[in-house]
Amino acid sequence: MITQREKQALYIIASGYSIDECAEIMSISRSSVEKHLLKVKRKLGVRTLCNAIYKASKIGIIAFCCFAVFDAEEIRRVSRIGRREVFLVQSVI
Question: Considering the entire predicted model, what is its pTM?
Answer without folding.
Answer: 0.68
